[in-house]
Amino acid sequence: MVSVAIVGKGNVGFHLYYELKKKNLNVAQFSSREQHQLKTFDVAIVAVSDYAIAEVSKNIECPLVVHTSGTTSIQGLKNPGRKGVFYPLQSFSKEKLIDFSKVPICIETEQKQDEKLLRFLSEYLGSDDYLMTSTQRNYLHVAAVFASNFTNHMYEIAKHLCDRYDVPFQILFPLIEETAQKIQQLSPNEAQTGPAKRNDLKTIRNHLHLLADSHKEIYQLLTGSIQKYGKKL
Amino acid sequence: MVSVAIVGKGNVGFHLYYELKKKNLNVAQFSSREQHQLKTFDVAIVAVSDYAIAEVSKNIECPLVVHTSGTTSIQGLKNPGRKGVFYPLQSFSKEKLIDFSKVPICIETEQKQDEKLLRFLSEYLGSDDYLMTSTQRNYLHVAAVFASNFTNHMYEIAKHLCDRYDVPFQILFPLIEETAQKIQQLSPNEAQTGPAKRNDLKTIRNHLHLLADSHKEIYQLLTGSIQKYGKKL
Q: Which residues does chain A have within 8 Å of residue B140's beta carbon, measured at their own beta carbons?
């Protein structure tokens, strides 16, 4: 059986430890400040902030050390032994239990044998795994900012507009869900609707008239971008 | 029992007719080009394009005429009789059956008795209804553009980045779903994560470096906007 040391007590470290422990894997958790004589473990998962990866990893003596970062290259690890990446693509918060069947894991290793070990771990968690280079992971991370952080900001602006005019925000929940679901059947380009897509200038003008300057700027830029994509594809 | 005439054979007309018929309401459907002697019906629902509402409604003789538009004021109807609005907030497509329990309906009437009738219809469809003025509906419509069209465009850009670097887009589906679900428990402001929110300049710089100019502009504007909202609230 594989034995795992988790280094770091933040959100990712907490959830990985909790889940592996629950499933009876041989797992132990360490803080990132402890001495790291981890020779007896098969793999050490360094789940710390991006900026701390080099510093923390350099002192870890373990046959294989992996980090969990979307933006850090595999070469960001400074341990003397073998290196890898085990990046769970999901937003974690400590208050909420994680369903690992909904957490895809991006794996990168220097050696084939380590790939096997990390895929075993991912499967053990119940996750789908994807082999990916550091470059691909870097682009995936910026794609995730669009798909999650920026999307959430669109919800934030929508809520702001609703609040201001006493419209209950919850009225938008079914539409938001449908929009998120639809792209599992259609591509986002095929799924697009609305005034920008059908070049409905009267509605666009009306909307711009309703919006404050900061929102107007976003509305204009995204409307133009939707129209460019409509032509391109 | 209430009797309903549906005028218009587009997506909204089709789905309303189909659903009411299925549920055995007394309902008939007419094309928008037919003569409209609809005096024997209790209500005529004009489900046509925004620009056609005035022209189509002006010839309808029915005690109550309502339109289904998010952006048109109740005064956009030109029928001689009573007026109202019955606006289903969802994106309809003909190929896909609609679950009306997930279609909130925004109602506006000039007279209380008509409000009762429209709420009965909404309940009959299994929908939640919301009383709303034309002004509120107008702001809701622009909020929906942010929450749905612009959000879908964020997915589109994310897919573009994934495709370009051979990363399967589906890897983002769980994150997209989680982002859409989360705001039913937390406000979008509380739910926000990512480099803009935590002012992680190193990651932001790295992302900007990866993006083409058109995406860079969107990234910068939305990052700035997230940070403004972070301070404001």
A: 161-162, 165, 167, 171-172
Comparing alpha-carbon positions, the chain B residue that sits nearest to A174 is B102
In 3D, which of B145, B149, B12, B91 has the Cα closest to residue A178?
B91
Return d(Cα A70, Cα A147) in angstroms, integer. 15
Q: Which residue of B156, B170, B182, B219 to mutate against A (max A Cβ within 10 Å)?
A: B156
| Strand ranges for chain A from DSSP E | 3-7, 26-30, 43-46, 64-67, 82-88, 105-109, 129-131
Distance CA B46, CA B83 (A): 11
Looking at the DSSP bridge assignments, the partners of residue A6 are A29, A45
DSSP alpha helix (H) spans, B101-172 = 112-125, 134-144, 151-164
pTM exceeds 0.90, yes or no: yes
Residues of A in contact with B122 (CB under 8 A): none
- In this prediction, the answer to ipTM > 0.85 reads yes
Cα distance between residue A90 and residue A101, in whole Å = 11
Q: List, for residues B197-226, the tens digit of each pLDDT value.
A: 999 999 999 999 999 999 999 999 999 999
C-alpha pair distances (Å), B188 with each of A138, A214, B13:
25, 18, 34
Q: Report the residue of A102, A131, A153 to disrupt the B interface, i.e. the one with the largest count of B CBs within 10 Å.
A: A153
Cβ atoms of B181 and B172 within 8 Å: the answer is no
Q: Report pLDDT digits (tens) over A65-100.
A: 999 999 999 999 999 999 999 999 987 777 778 899
